[in-house]
């Protein structure tokens, strides 16, 4: 039985922090595989700057040398944004029926679930396991204990709390902004992705 983490983001573009986070989680939580899951471009809560083709190509370039990482376009290819994280986890648990599947998220999203801001949040928490990455200003244990949804579905193994030990919050937004004004974010993302962005004139 393998241990698999599902790591979703817009990856617009993928950054070295995305990769460092995935690597840290894989190492600390003894994951056999991390599935990087680019979100649908049809999400109402995100305004993506890049065509799906480019996001997908950069993701493939970024992970080609690490056998632990796998890209999956399950959410990207949805016809409309009518799928929730709960449904995504149902999909992957069916795809990997004999494995342990974890949803990887930041502590800020844990707060949102606690506030009831996620569709099917109660079902999501009651039926899945999570790897939660620390975020500055968020007390993960306190967040769980203050939320009836979270604390009543925590059997001691529901939430694996991880502090990376180093605050690196370089965002895709920052990188896009740097490219847009002629900045130099070269060492904030994989060299192959930097070269791809330059070649295709993305974010300018």
UniProtKB/TrEMBL annotation:
* Primary enzyme class: transferase
Nucleotidyltransferase among keywords = yes
Q: Which reaction does it catalyse?
A: nicotinate beta-D-ribonucleotide + ATP + H(+) = deamido-NAD(+) + diphosphate
Report the protein name in the record. Answer: Probable nicotinate-nucleotide adenylyltransferase
* GO biological processes: NAD+ biosynthetic process
Looking at the record, the residues that make up the Cytidyltransferase-like domain are: 6-177
Enumerate the UniProt keywords alphabetically: ATP-binding, NAD, Nucleotide-binding, Nucleotidyltransferase, Pyridine nucleotide biosynthesis, Transferase
EC number(s) recorded for this UniProt protein: 2.7.7.18
Tell me the route in metabolism or biology where this protein functions: Cofactor biosynthesis; NAD(+) biosynthesis; deamido-NAD(+) from nicotinate D-ribonucleotide: step 1/1
UniProt-recorded Gene Ontology molecular function terms: ATP binding; nicotinate-nucleotide adenylyltransferase activity
Q: Does the keyword Transferase apply?
A: yes
Q: Which family does it belong to?
A: Belongs to the NadD family.
> What does this protein do, in the record's words?
Catalyzes the reversible adenylation of nicotinate mononucleotide (NaMN) to nicotinic acid adenine dinucleotide (NaAD).
Q: Which InterPro entries match?
A: Cyt_trans-like, NadD/NMNAT, Rossmann-like_a/b/a_fold
The protein's matches in Pfam families, at most eight in alphabetical order, are given as: CTP_transf_like
